[in-house]
Amino acid sequence: MEDGLSPQKITSGLNNRIIGRRVLCYPSLPSTMxxxxxxxxxxxxxxxxxxxxxxxxxxxxLGRTWLSPEGSVSLSVVLYPDIAGLPYLIMIASLAxxxxxxxxxxxxxxxxxxxxxxxxxxxxxxxxxxxSMGGKAVDxxxxxxxxxxxxxxxxxxxxxxxxxxxxxxLHSSVSRLGVVRRLLVELDGFYKAPRQAIYxxxxxxxxxxxxxxxxxSGGDAQYGRAESVTADGSLMLRADDGSLTKxxxxxxxxxxxxxxxxxx
Length: 264
Fold this sequence. Notes:
SH3 type barrels, 7-stranded mixed beta sheet, disordered C terminus, 29% strand
């Protein structure tokens, strides 16, 4: 695989406890999430990682297309968390991506609620969490991560105004292998870390808080100030009339006067 993405090179020398002990690499897949779900249904070891150079029918939140152009990394992780741990998976994934970017590039990485990683106000990575429930227990969860590493964003006009890549920001090449290896180390470290610490760091990196926003959830638009986030990852939205609403998930855009397309 391009840039040395093979299970042997990815895992060599890593002493991960759970995430990344087993890695499966593919030149192309319809969707790493779909493959991870199949692996989970077969009882794959927790922490199994599926990586593809290309996704042909990848999808993001709300069934949207998940672009996986050449130079990006798409991976999914099979997990078996308890039900109380489900809300923390998006926090863990976001923090692991942000820390990996900062460690390898020196670029500051911030988070946009609920699932985007930003560099200089533009999206460089996205997170998707899916889970299967059996009664009140979690059968499995799949953590999906897509990172623009060596992507030529100008070749994709539909996202050029809002997205970026690591190589584009640095104006130099960034190792996909290096990013994946560091990401697996960060994910493994966060997975069993104290949840209060995870929540605290995640909250501190959110660029959305304190801003006037519009949140679209279930087809309804809500306006107000993004006041805080709860430990389960929900956004607390303060409306103009002073009322406070808890928003579990949604698409968010800024309403500030200084807003631009990069923040949407």
